[in-house]
Amino acid sequence: MACHGMLLSIYTAVLSVLQRDADRLLSLSRVAGGKESGVKVMEEIRPLGDLHLVMMVQLCGYVIARQQQAVSACITPQSSNGGTEGSLAEPNATSMQIDLESEMQQVLARLRHTLRVE
């Protein structure tokens, strides 16, 4: 669980950096569209000029989903065994994991919305 939590924190940090890059790209495209005379301001421009950024977001989303599936598959059988090892810390760890996952999902959703993918 600790490794999963650390990975979620790392993914959140990586997605935050990608969000900053996407915001920068979007602001640059709007400025470039507004400077040209006689050309409509590019309000609806899709920042697909930086294809690497979009591909990184999609790759991160895929890796995150696969990790969550793997962790869920590993944790479910352990919970049903009724073992006493780690049972005292499980509720706190589970709530912390849920908080980390929801924070990371919010950052990923905001990033996808900025890039207008999926």
Structure description:
- The protein has helices spanning 2-35, 51-81, 90-115.
- The protein is an all-alpha fold and 118 residues long.
- Residues 37-44 and 84-89 have low confidence and may be disordered.
- The protein has 3 helices and no strands.
- It is elongated.
- Series of H and E elements: HHH
Instruction: Give the DSSP E fraction (strand runs of 2 or more residues).
Output: under 5%
The amount of helix comes to: over 70%
Radius of gyration: 19 Å
User: What is the 3D form?
Assistant: elongated
Number of strands: 0
Low-pLDDT residue spans? 37-44, 84-89
Estimated structural class: mainly alpha
Give the biggest beta sheet: none
**Global mean pLDDT:** 76
End-to-end gap: 29 Å
Number of helices: 3
SSE inventory with pairings:
Blueprint: H1 2-35, H2 51-81, H3 90-115
Question: Short summary of the structure?
Answer:
With 118 residues, the chain is mostly helical. Helix content is 77%, strand content 0%. The radius of gyration is 19 Å and the shape is elongated.
